[in-house]
Amino acid sequence: MATLREIKRRIVGVQNTQQITKAMKMVAAARLRRAQENIINARPYSRKISEVLHHLLSAEKDFSNPLLEQRELKKLAVLVVTSDRGLCGAFNMNVIRTVEEMLETEYSNLLGSSDIDLYCMGKKGGDYFNRLPYNIAEKYNGLFSSLKFDFVSGFMKNLVNRFVTGEIDKVIVVYNEFKSVIQQNVVIEQLLPIKREEETEQVHKKHVEFIYEPDKASIINSLMPKYLNASMWRILLESYAAELGARMTAMDMATENAKEMIRTLQIKYNKERQASITKEIIEIVSGANALKEA
After folding, report:
1. Per the count of CB atoms within 10 A, which of 41, 80, 136, 234 is most buried?
2. Rounded to 5 degrees, what angle do the CA atoms 118, 145, 32 make?
């Protein structure tokens, strides 16, 4: 049976933990507001540049570019976007499990060789896959603490060069998309080669035919790097906002669980204290009765 001192020590320990989880929830909430603003600002540009590019590609059926080249898959690059820190529920493991399932089902013929390169963007993904027989091309730790667009443009330039020179044949990114504070969806998205999306007749009617200067092909060539940079920038912002939302939810649940645990321990403490007092009273009364009989 636990002594009163042990129960009291446990109550104090849980109270200290509750203060920490509550503080972490407040910090995540404050950062989430800024992250939500960033993703809300980034989405329209990314969506519009994608819309314009694919509209032009659908209009120029015979247009060719190395970034559109569909070739036999011999080398695959997978960008695994996780967080640098834990305490955010199943945020990281959802991405990691999705990557493993995708590789084991869709790309099982490449497993066990050096034909899959992992780019781990976030410490948690790098730490996990570093213990397994996967080829990690690059690890980016501490990325989200000072996320800059310059990093994205440099990273995508290197990735595009590897694709154009034939070092890799396909680039896939797996990340958490921000939906709300309590909802994050794991998304698998192909970055390279850029897919030609066939527009339906109804969607095509919504587009106004413009006169392009100098010409459509030149505009497509100039839009492609911007499209890739905007997509990667949006993905990283989505993941960061989703991480903060997941951490805020996890810390809120931890705070509530600590509150319930404190209540349970307090009841147990009161019962033990009452039992101790009752025992002392019984001993006093029994001693008094013994003196009377003597």
Report:
1. 80
2. 105
CATH of the domain at 245: 3.40.1380.10
* Least confident among 11-25, 192-206, 231-245, 252-266: 192-206
How many CB atoms lie under 10 A from the CB of residue 254?
19
Q: What angle do CA 239, 46, 201 make, to 5 degrees?
A: 125
The residue annotated as part of the active site, out of 28, 76, 81, 88, is 88
Which two tokens mark 265?
Answer: 């321990």
How do residues 36-56 score in pLDDT, each as one tens digit? 889 989 999 999 998 888 888
CA dihedral 116, 75, 234, 181 (to 10 degrees): -30
120 noted as active-site residue = no
Task: Answer yes or no: is 228 within a domain.
Answer: yes
Amino acid at 169: D
DSSP 41: H
The order of strands in the sheet holding 183-192 is: 135-140, 116-121, 76-81, 170-180, 183-192
Domain-located, residue 8: no
